[in-house]
Amino acid sequence: MRTVAVDILTGFLGSGKTTLLRHVLEHGLAGKPVAVIMNEIGEVGIDGKVVTGLANVEKMVELTSGCICCSIDDYRFDLAIQEIIDTAQPHLVIIESTGLADPEPLAYRVKNAGLGLDAVITVVDAANVERQLAETKVARAQIEAADFLVVNKLDLVEAPDVARLERRLAKLNPRAERMKTVRGALDSDVLFATGVATFRERARAGSDHLHADAIGSFVYRSRLPLRQAMFERLLRRLPADILRAKGIVRFADRDWHCLFNFTCGRHELTWVKLEGGMEESQAVFIGRDLRRHQGRIEAALAACEVGPEGKAQHG
Length: 315
Hints:
The protein has 315 residues and is an alpha/beta fold.
């Protein structure tokens, strides 16, 4: 199966997941084809061309934005995912979990299917989350599992209550990046995996343009292999301002290359065998206040490099 990034979108009933998905389906993500797996396609209210002749996918609709919308049988999860990837060749798969589900088992199934889990995105209903947390354990599990917390319906909440909610969410999940929205309208460059390429291109072009909330990016490249243990330690110690990092690196004493994904304090490594012998390691780092952090991160990366004599290059 082709390696495709997967984002899990979760949130309690009525939090605004469907509204956010409708926005994604109508506008696409960075011009990339996206496959969205939903519980109920009819809830989105978008018309498109129905794709037929599929064995394991219950329903697939192709939209004018280039995205596709699907519903699948939970018992055929692995087969259905593979069929979606083979048929639509999406850049990204977004899976909507049910409002009453803990996303952790779904994240496990994604990894088991050989896919890369990019991020767990939890939509929080600012107006009702306190009641949901008091009444059910699932609401808490959804918040604690998140890489990104999308705090929705802020127009229904007074400013002091928003501040109190922010403190509560930070206590429940200090690692997650919180993003605020009204009715699911959100700039998705940082939120979904498709945006990483946008930031990579900006960094390669040498653009000083900063994204909303002063989010910027820089690219690291090296033809020297890296020490795996030092590199993983670097990822664990990245400052909280670094929201995403992604790339392909070559480790010393390893035949296969490593695809790494870092999202809001969580990182994963996947091994790939590349034909043609790609020698260069490449990575993009995305976050806030990069002028303060970039020098230290680049120095730490340089310290991971192994020179021709098999020694670390720096200090």
